[in-house]
Each structure stands twice: as structure tokens, then as C-alpha cells.
Write a structure and sequence with these properties.
This protein is α/β, with parallel strands linked by helices. Strands 1-2-3-4-5-6-7-8 form an 8-stranded parallel barrel, surrounded by 6 helices. 42% of the residues lie in helices and 16% in strands. The longest helix has 13 residues.
Length: 231
């Protein structure tokens, strides 16, 4: 059943339904309804943050979910599913895919991505895992480790990728990853038009994740306001 769900993501849209504590729509109930709206619009999967939101979303839709937990730790820049505590929280929900920061940045307590990946797969050998990466090198390293999915989620958000943009030069970073990786590549990050979403699939991405431009009204509103303010 899970295999069929995952295969159904090929060439399709995954909608990220997330709202952080300081955002107006922060509520598991609202995220559940957001996921329901995304499904009605034709989404084939959901990306969600925290077990509470995931459980609510699971009540509303039967789509495959990429689960994460965003949490800050004082001794690490990594905040997407940074430790086994967050992995355990997600695994308990039965979520189909767990995504985690797979960058070269060290996790809390100085743990490398290699050590963390081995720890996860030893405890949860059947859990599908997605690597959120920021550079081509990180993506290919995650692929070598054995991640099931390789994502471009963090391009431009880390020190090592500062200034990079996923859509630059006709998605050059994505194309390089697709060319060399064995795992399924998921395009994610600043894909804010239907045309860009279509393009990444044409380039060979397995799926595309779109978030803010669909599910964060404050971001969408700001885009309109800034455009109207231009001289």
C-alpha cells in the first residue's frame, strides 16, 4: 500500500502545509483543513511539520505525507528533524516519509549526517527517508548514504549555499543532482509558479513540493503589496 502511495507521487505536486508558532494560521486544525483543500485541488502528497499537525492531516486526507519537525538547538544550525527525538516523534505517527536536514552542518552534539543516518536506519530500517540538501555535493553524498529521496529544500538557506537559487540558470543545481543521483529527486524551494513546477518535472524531478505560494497567505499578500509599491 505504501509503495503504491509513493509511486503515485511521480510527476505530481506535493503541497507543504506548515505554519510556525508566530504565524497567523498556526494550528493543527487549520493545517488539516489546508491539506484537505490541497487534496481537493489535486495535490498528490503533503509535507507537514510536527506530529500534531500530521495526525490532524491524517484525519482529513489519505495522501502520503512527508513529515518533519522544525526545532532549534543552541549548539547546531540544523533545525529540520535534527535529532532522534524528532525522528521518534515522526515515526510514531506512521508517516510515509521522514525528511531531515542532510547538509554538511553538524547536528546537535556535533553529530555528522553519516552518523545520524546510520542511527536512524538501524532503529527504523523500513522507514523511507528524504534528505533536505543545500548543495549538489550534499545531495550526492546523501544519495550515496542511501536516502530514498533527495530534496533541494535548503538551497540558499545555508552558509555553504548562500546566494544560490534553485531556479537559477534553468534549475542548474537540480539538473546536476538529477544527472548523478540514483535516488528519487524531489524539487523544493522557491518554486512559486505553476510554470516552474512543470519545468522541474520536465527536467526529471520525481515530484515537486510547493509551499508558501499556496499555503501562506501573508507571503502571498506581501508579494502583491511589494509589486504595487514598485515605481
Amino acid at each position: 500500500m505504501i509503495d503504491n502511495k509513493i509511486e503515485a507521487l511521480k510527476g505530481k505536486l506535493i503541497v507543504s502545509c506548515q505554519a510556525l508558532p508566530d504565524e497567523p494560521l498556526h494550528s493543527s486544525f487549520i493545517m488539516g483543513r489546508m491539506a484537505k483543500a490541497a487534496k481537493q485541488g489535486g495535490a498528490s502528497g503533503i509535507r507537514a511539520n510536527t506530529a500534531a499537525d500530521i495526525k490532524e492531516i491524517q484525519k482529513e486526507v489519505d495522501l502520503p505525507i512527508i513529515g518533519i519537525v522544525k526545532k532549534d538547538y543552541d549548539d547546531s544550525k540544523v533545525y529540520i528533524t535534527p535529532t532522534m527525538d524528532e525522528i521518534d516523534e515522526l515515526a510514531a505517527t506512521g508517516v510515509e516519509i521522514i525528511a531531515l536536514d542532510a547538509t554538511s552542518d553538524l547536528r546537535p552534539n556535533g553529530k555528522s549526517i553519516d552518523d545520524f543516518y546510520n542511527e536512524i536506519t538501524e532503529k527504523y530500517p523500513n522507514q523511507l527517508l528524504m534528505a533536505d540538501c543545500s548543495t549538489v555535493e550534499e545531495a550526492l553524498h546523501a544519495d550515496e548514504l542511501g536516502f530514498d529521496f533527495i530534496g533541494t529544500t535548503l538551497v540558499g538557506y545555508t552558509d555553504q549555499s548562500k546566494g544560490d537559487k534553485i531556479e537559477a540558470n534553468d534549475f542548474e543545481i537540480l539538473r546536476k543532482i538529477i544527472e548523478k543521483a540514483n535516488g528519487k529527486v524531489i524539487a523544493e524551494g522557491n518554486i512559486n509558479t505553476p510554470e516552474k513546477a512543470k519545468r522541474v518535472i520536465e527536467l526529471g524531478a520525481h515530484s515537486v513540493v510547493v509551499g508558501s505560494i499556496i499555503t501562506r497567505p501573508q507571503v502571498i499578500t506581501k508579494n502583491f503589496v511589494e509589486k504595487l509599491s514598485e515605481n
